[in-house]
Amino acid sequence: MHLGKTAAPARRGKCSACSLVLAGSLFPACSLIAQTAAPPAASAQAPGSGAAPAFEVSVVRLNKSGDSGSRSNFQNGRFTATNVLLKNLIHYQAYGVPEPRILGGPKWINSRRFDIEAKMDSSLAGELEKLDRDERTTLRQAIFQKLLADRFRLAVHWETRELSIYALVVAKQGSRLQAAKESDRGSGTSSGYGSFTARNLTVDQIAQALTQELSEEVGRVIVDKTGIQGRYDATLKWTPAEDAPPGGGHAPDSTPAGNSEPALFTAIQEQLGLRLESARGPVKVLVIDHVEMPSDN
Fold this sequence. Notes:
Blueprint: H1 29-32, E1 57-63, E2 71-75, E3 78-85, H2 86-95, E4 102-103, E5 113-119, H3 122-130, H4 133-152, E6 155-170, E7 178-179, E8 188-192, E9 195-201, H5 203-213, H6 215-218, E10 221-224, E11 232-237, H7 264-272, E12 274-290
Parallel strand pairs: 4-12, 6-10
Antiparallel strand pairs: 1-5, 2-3, 3-5, 6-12, 7-11, 8-9, 9-11
């Protein structure tokens, strides 16, 4: 095993286990719900430095356990991940874009799993903690973008494409979202089979999180068209469709026999006071131009 400084990149740059996404836990909420127009790593700089921010050291190994679960932690400038997919790292850590909006790349980015250990310089870790939430998200994403460019030779670009989407709108009975407490600074999501909880998020962030959590069931990007401002808490429980069509044709309108929770579309309307409308619209997507298997450490 070799532990060394990450080299400068030659190019520019669902998690299977459900988890509580809060600061310092499995995938940080600010990575999951970050604005998708995150700048490339080269445009951000470490505070008080002319250099692009980066982990001081990193180790990447191919995980051969055959397990399906994964876990990660980022705290005090140290990142550890076990059995993670590259697609998850792109989504949660580096770009904050839901998987349906990540296009291209070889099949192995959805199948090969990796163990990663990375540590940033203590001064950079200290500066990171002093930033507000949005600034911290931008800098942290830049650090992970550089890590993936260094170790996986990942190069990407953004495009806007016309795609089938679901527009999230206010239902006739009005929104049932609960306003988040201003004193509560924690934010994030948790999910399980047929359940989803959001805490202290904007509606746009809730739509982004639902896009990820419901990707297999609806297969489309969910776009906030509610016009609702502010931060909210939301809890959603439904009966997952057993035969949801690929590409998100439509969710069933009735609850399967023997289940107490409503079907997805009904649950969104009854429990959140919102509704999903089938539409087409411009979607900003992240396109993978190039990626390589990482070299041995």
